[in-house]
Design brief:
CATH class: Mainly Beta
Number of strands: 22
Helix content: under 10%
Low-confidence stretches: none
Order of helices and strands: HHEEEEEEEEEEEEEEEEEEEEEHE
CATH architecture: Beta Barrel
Number of domains: 1
Shape: globular
Structural class: mainly beta
Number of helices: 3
Distance between the termini: 21 Å
Mean pLDDT: 91
């Protein structure tokens, strides 16, 4: 452990001495370091890592990067006391390394490996543990139009992320990010972006280099983004198709074919921010017809001229659940591939059959330190349906309880980000079990505490 800490300290010092480079992206393949072609600095080892020319013109180059994350978590009464006690907590580590090779202005190849470990955790899943595997490996061809547009074709294993990541996410919060084996076309013209893709989900396994796509879960769709619009500023319109050979819900099981049509608008104006989204789902699970939906509003206002620049936020969601047990229809919403830590890193509940009201407060303690406090209140949308984890696996069925209140969650976190390379977070979550949880299981309150250290380069 000491060697690891010394290594991180050494790398951090070198990064701190490095000049400012393009900001890191959530999707690392979106980073572009061709701007360094005109940098005449000599002897800069970090520049050589980020941009090493392979041709005299500089259009062919190779770039290296990575992400190292350590997390310690302590959970009291995990899964509301249903899981075995863990007095010591556990440590999660994740290492990501990638190479991005450009062959001229049209072709590129991106390769990324991932290693995730879980030390001291009793019940691990593929979300926690994946010793070493090929996370991304794709080839891409792109070309530009004369009037500032471009089109790209990408084939291979890759991450997908769209919009607010409510339905399609890289799953940054959990230990393993998720990927797809996909064919994708991307069009960008003026204020319009459009993606079209077809993919198979990549199943994470616990051995070395054994991850593979599965025919069990197919995912396809199109995503259109319009920017700089009058009044609403930004607009997303999308269709997502999903097929799974066997799915299980409280009132349905069997082959699932689900179609999602959605719209989202978001923007900022004079201290205000807003993000509103609505999705309707249709299709079949077994012999039952799907008719499900969700709608959310997320807004806030920042007092930029007040000490600590406080921001008051409010988010509310309505996510449908099944209405009548035993009928020929299913109203349970499927969030598909959402960010794993949907309601904080405690990640105890997923976005299905849920009504959520979520006020929050943010304070800027300094330019590099942020303090966040938020409070969640959860109810079942329908008492005829159970509650689900973020991966849509059943936590508790509807049972015989008519209780609608799931519980309340108070979360506080302090984030320290001294520069673009380093990230630190300390957090605390208290989940007070409501009537439904007390009837359905052990029903104890959850205490969750965590510390995160992350280095990007």
């Amino acid at each position: 452990m000491k060697k690891i800490l010394l290594f991180l300290a050494f790398i951090s010092c070198l990064c701190l001495s490095a000049q400012q480079y393009p900001e890191f992206k959530s999707l690392r393949f979106d980073e572009d370091y061709r701007v360094l072609a005109t940098d005449t600095t000599k002897g800069n080892w970090y520049k050589a890592i980020k941009y090493t020319p392979l041709s005299a013109s500089g259009n062919s180059y190779i770039s290296f990067g990575g992400d190292i994350r350590y997390q310690y978590f302590y959970v009291k009464n995990e899964n509301w006391g249903d899981d075995p006690k863990d007095p010591d907590g556990y440590v999660l580590t994740r290492w990501l390394f990638h190479t991005d090779t450009h062959f001229g202005t049209h072709f590129r190849a991106f390769v990324q490996v991932q290693s995730s470990t879980a030390d001291g955790k009793e019940n691990t899943s593929p979300v926690d543990l994946n010793p070493l595997d090929l996370h991304q490996a794709f080839a891409e061809y792109s070309t530009s139009f004369k009037d500032a547009g471009n089109i790209s074709f990408r084939l291979g294993r890759q991450e997908l992320s769209y919009g607010s990541q409510r339905l399609v996410s890289v799953r940054e919060g959990p230990n393993n990010r998720q990927a797809f084996d996909a064919a994708k076309m991307m069009l960008h013209y003026k204020n319009t972006k459009a993606d079209f893709f077809y993919s198979n989900y990549v199943i994470t396994k616990k051995d070395i280099f054994d991850d593979k796509f599965t025919y069990d879960r197919k995912f396809w769709g199109s995503y259109l983004t319009l920017s700089n619009l009058p009044v609403i500023t930004n607009l997303d319109l999308y269709y997502l198709g999903y097929k799974r050979s066997h799915a299980t819900f409280d009132d349905a099981q069997g082959r699932e074919t689900r179609h999602s049509a959605g719209a989202r608008t978001w923007g900022k104006y004079n201290g205000w921010r807003y993000d509103a989204e609505a999705v309707y789902q249709f299709g079949k699970v077994g012999q039952k017809n799907i008719s499900a939906y969700t709608a959310s509003i997320n807004g806030g206002y920042e007092f930029t001229k007040v000490w600590l620049k406080p921001e008051i936020g409010l988010k509310t969601e309505v996510i449908s659940g099944d209405h009548i047990a035993g009928d020929k229809s299913l109203q349970t919403f499927n969030p598909l591939f959402p960010r794993g830590a949907y309601f904080g890193l405690a990640s105890v509940i997923g976005p299905s059959n849920l009504i959520d009201i979520h006020p929050s407060l943010n304070f800027e303690l300094s330019k590099s330190i942020e303090w966040v406090i938020d409070y969640d209140m959860f109810w079942r949308y329908s008492i005829q349906d159970g509650i689900y984890a973020p991966n849509v696996s059943m936590i508790y069925p509807a049972g015989s309880s008519n209780a609608q209140k799931i519980g309340r969650q108070l979360e506080s976190e302090i984030v320290f980000q001294p520069n673009q390379y380093l990230y630190f977070r300390a957090e605390f979550t208290w989940f007070q079990a409501g009537d439904y949880l007390k009837v359905s299981g052990t029903g104890k309150d959850i205490i969750f505490a965590g510390i995160t250290t992350q280095l990007k380069f």
